[in-house]
Structure formats: structure tokens, C-alpha cells
Amino acid sequence: MRITRKKIVGLLCTGALASALVLIGSAPAQAETLVGNDVHLAEYCTWKHGAASFAYNIDNSWSGWRCSLMSVSYSVDMNEACRHAYGNGVYARNYPVTWNGWHCYR
């Protein structure tokens, strides 16, 4: 059986149409809800590393957040920080991507 360009295009179009019909028939995706404008990094750091720890940003970038305790630096899990502040099912997003653009959503 010889596969021609016409058959390939036909198969691709059929697949795209089937995908579109599945999407049209699907329930709409649930919109995310903002649950907090603040990720509460200071509270996260003290919860995770002790009362003497604090949050800081090493280079004023979106990924520069750290917890510090006695000159030791620890990475920050923004999703975990959001869950700690607002409960299970909450996650972090940074939009617009800036050093202070982190927010918590459900």
C-alpha cells in the first residue's frame, strides 16, 4: 500500500477534527482562583527552618528566594509555602515573572 501526501493530509485533518470535537464536547476547565497575594515567605522559613530563619532574595529575580539560618541558605519551595499558608490544593504562580510576582491559587 502506497501512502500518498493526500492520504497523510487526510489522516491529519481527521485527527485534528476528532481532537476538536473532543474539546468542544468537554466540560470547561475550572478557572483558577486567587487565594492569596502573599506567599508568606517569612512564616514559611520560620516553620521550615526555625524561629531565627528569615526569607531573602539573592538577586531580585523570581527564582532568587531563599531561607537563611545562621549563614546557611536553603531553597524555597513556593508551592509548599502556599500550601502551608492556605491549605492543600493550593499552588504558586509567578505572573508577571518578577521577584515579587508570586501569588497563591487554587
Q: From N to C, what is the helix and strand string?
A: HEHEEEHEE
Provide a count of the helices. 3
User: What spatial order of strands do you see in the largest sheet?
Assistant: 1-6-5
Task: State the shape.
Answer: globular
Into which percent range does the helicity of residues fall?
A: 25-40%
Low-confidence stretches: 11-28
3D structure, described in words:
With 106 residues, this protein is α+β, with helices and mostly antiparallel strands. The chain has a domain at 34-105. Helices cover 37% and strands 23% of the residues. The protein has three helices and six strands, in the order αβαβββαββ. The strands form two sheets. The protein has a three-stranded antiparallel beta sheet, with helices on one face. A three-stranded antiparallel beta sheet has the order 2-3-4, with helices on one face. The longest helix is centred in the N-terminal third of the chain and has 21 residues, at 5-25. 12% of the residues are buried.
Keywords:
single chain; 106 residues; 3 helices; 6 strands; three-stranded antiparallel β-sheet
In short:
With 106 residues, the chain is of the alpha+beta class. It has helices at 5-25, 41-49, 78-86, and strands at 34-36, 54-57, 65-69, 72-75, 91-94, 102-105. The protein is globular and about 65 Å long.
Please render the helix and strand layout as text.
Blueprint: H1 5-25, E1 34-36, H2 41-49, E2 54-57, E3 65-69, E4 72-75, H3 78-86, E5 91-94, E6 102-105
Antiparallel strand pairs: 1-6, 2-3, 3-4, 5-6
